[in-house]
Amino acid sequence: MPSSLLQLLIALVLVGLTFLVAYPLNVGSGRSVDALDAFLLVFALVNLRLGWAAANGMNGGRAPAWFVVLGLLTAALITWAMIRALTPR
Questions:
Q1: Rounded Cα gap, residues 59 and 10, in angstroms
Q2: Rounded Cα–Cα distance for residues 15 and 6 (Å)
Q3: How far apart are CA 86 and CA 81, in angstroms?
Q4: Which one of 19, 39, 71, 74 counts the least CB within 10 Å of its CB?
Q5: What is the pTM of this model?
Q6: 25 bridge partner residues
Q7: Cβ neighbours of 7 (radius 10 Å)
Q8: What values do phi and psi take at 28, rounded to 5?
Q9: Coil, helix or strand for 60?
Q10: Would you state the pLDDT for residue 28?
């Protein structure tokens, strides 16, 4: 298993974990954001970046097409989850 795939899988697991855990943080007037989800999503983004760098390093500076597609979908999922976590409720 290439290291880039492992980093991508770790990022996906961290994003999936945000659906199971929560730590609401009050931001005033009864509104809260999910601090634990935001924290986990930062680590997911770091793992995606490490995986992307490893994928670029494997094939002479170009990531394989499958990794680009999965990486972009993962980045979109991280973005959606981060907006969901940091939107005050």
A1: 21
A2: 14
A3: 9
A4: 19
A5: 0.88
A6: 33
A7: 21
A8: 115, 150
A9: coil
A10: 83
Q: Say which residue the tokens 């680590």 belong to.
A: 43
**How far, in Å, CA of 67 to CA of 9, rounded?**
11
C-alpha span between 84 and 55 (Å, rounded): 29
Cβ neighbours around 72 below 10 Å, total: 12
Question: How far, in Å, CA of 22 to CA of 66, rounded?
Answer: 32
- pLDDT at 1 > cutoff 80: no
pLDDT (0 to 100) of residue 45: 95
CA 46, CA 9: separation in Å to the nearest integer? Answer: 12
Which tokens is 36 given? 């634990």
Instruction: Match 């991280």 to its residue by tokens.
Output: 78
Q: Is the pLDDT of residue 72 over 90?
A: yes
Show the tokens assigned to 4.
């880039």
Q: Which residues sit opposite 32 in a β-bridge?
A: 26
